[in-house]
């Protein structure tokens, strides 16, 4: 941003110089009308402009041409004084030039102008003073060294002040840029805060909508299903012929499937939007609850799967109870669902090791297992290994999302026909 | 490499500038070439104005030879005005315009902001031995040539120590011996008559 500013200053100053230099040249022509000093006006004026523009052309990446402008102002002053044959007032051109140079915001540019003026005056004045009569410099009798020094000091004061203003201008603008930058950043922060507040409000609104959606789903969708199950149960109690019984059984399993699907969707929506709730986890109690819920799961002709658990907790473990419940519930229900019919005693074993920093949970079963190709895919949303799979395809997806929400990690090791082992690492919150 | 070229080029430019100044100054230092049929008129010669200028007969007369087209003449205007103001009560001033273009007396007088008599008769110049402008001619009360020459030692010089015309007036009234004017006072510079080819 600073470079862009410097380029702007340079560009603007260069354009101004074009106007000023042309004006100086034209002034020379106008002055030539007085005493017919055309050769000097056109000759020296043109040479000055050539000096400036050729320096700019030859050395475009340097600021040498700016120093040339400064020198050229001094030369124009000398030219005008000469054209008017010693008109003292033309010395003001030096001060005009000094003021013009402030636009470059570089105090060093005063130096060439001051040098031209002082060296020229000093050398010519001295030559006249020592009696060299070919140089006519001043008509004043009293041009003593003292007077000369006073003139020099006053001129230097003007150059110094212009240099000072150039320097101050530069500093001020640099400061201004910095402030603008800070102001811009501050404004951006304000805007971001505002946007954040707005999105917070919107989030609250959508959360409320989700709440009512979940409520609707859980009550309005599942309620008819549970009454359907009730009706089916009633039908089962009546004496039915085998054809009717088969159809009723199919109906019951479809309803249960649909209900399970709806519950999975509910779990997913709850997991994704609810905040992590920090509570002390009592794994034993949790597993007892889950076993209780899942005991009557599955097809009626399925064997009951033995749920074993080993909890090793030295320290208290804090995490989100409902999410851990969902994780364990889904994994265990999978193990039950996908038990190996060829194995005599199907089981699922849960081993929990709690330490100060984390809890490591292992859920191992001797079910049908998952082959390598599907191991990566089972965590995907709605992925089922085969169309004959009973579940919704959301179970492991929800497990993975829940684990990630708790900033943990999950790993799967499995061999088809041998079983599955899920290893979960959850930090102690 | 480019830097070296630039420096050399700038030196060429500055040398050219210095040359222009030097050359112009040299030209200014040259005297006006004396015309072919010039008749020198020595100091003390009686100059017969013959009614060409309505000046009172008892006072010395200061003739200012002037050409509006001559830059040296134009430069001289303020100085002549100050001279006229200073000595206007002691001597009569008159302006002789040496120029081919048609000016009116009124126009010339307004340039100097004076009401001196103005003549356009160039024979007065020949009678006084004047062949350039600006020139000062001082005739004493008896119309004898007291001084004919430059106002100052060079064209655009205003050095008070070489104000020859003023010195001549002062010596005329001081009744001291006429100062010996030489060289710079008498070797006329300025514009040739009637049209200036060398300024």
CATH architecture of the domain at 61-192 in chain B: 3-Layer(aba) Sandwich
Largest sheet of chain B: 5 strands, mixed
CATH architecture type of the domain at 275-427 in chain A: 2-Layer Sandwich
CATH level-1 class of the domain at 61-192 in chain B: Alpha Beta
Give the gist of this structure.
Chain A has 429 residues and is of the alpha+beta class.
Description:
The complex is a heterodimer of chains A (429) and B (199). With 429 residues, chain A is of the alpha+beta class. Among the domains of chain A are: 142 residues, no CATH class; 153 residues, Histidine kinase-like ATPase, C-terminal domain (Heat Shock Protein 90, 2-Layer Sandwich), CATH 3.30.565.10. Chain A has eleven helices and seven strands. In chain A, the strands form two sheets. A five-stranded mixed beta sheet of chain A has the order 2-4-5-7-6, with helices on one face. In chain A, α5 packs antiparallel against α6. The model of chain A has no long low-confidence stretch (mean pLDDT 87). Chain B has a domain of 132 residues: Glutaredoxin, CATH 3.40.30.10. In chain B, 35% of the residues lie in helices and 14% in strands. The chains are: A alpha+beta (429), B alpha/beta (199). The interface between A and B is medium-sized, with 25 and 26 residues.
Task: Show the helix and strand layout.
The complex is a heterodimer of chains A (429) and B (199).
Chain A: H1 2-35, H2 38-58, H3 64-83, H4 92-100, H5 110-129, H6 145-237, H7 242-273, E1 279-280, H8 283-294, E2 306-313, E3 318-319, H9 321-337, E4 347-354, E5 358-365, H10 372-375, H11 395-405, E6 409-415, E7 419-427
Parallel strand pairs in A: 2-4
Antiparallel strand pairs in A: 1-3, 4-5, 5-7, 6-7
Helix pairs in contact in A: 1-2, 1-3, 2-3, 3-4, 3-5, 5-6, 6-7, 7-11, 8-9, 9-11
Chain B: H1 2-29, E1 61-66, H2 71-87, E2 92-97, H3 105-112, E3 118-119, H4 123-128, E4 132-133, E5 135-139, E6 145-149, H5 164-174, E7 191-192
Parallel strand pairs in B: 1-2, 2-3
Antiparallel strand pairs in B: 1-5, 4-7, 5-6
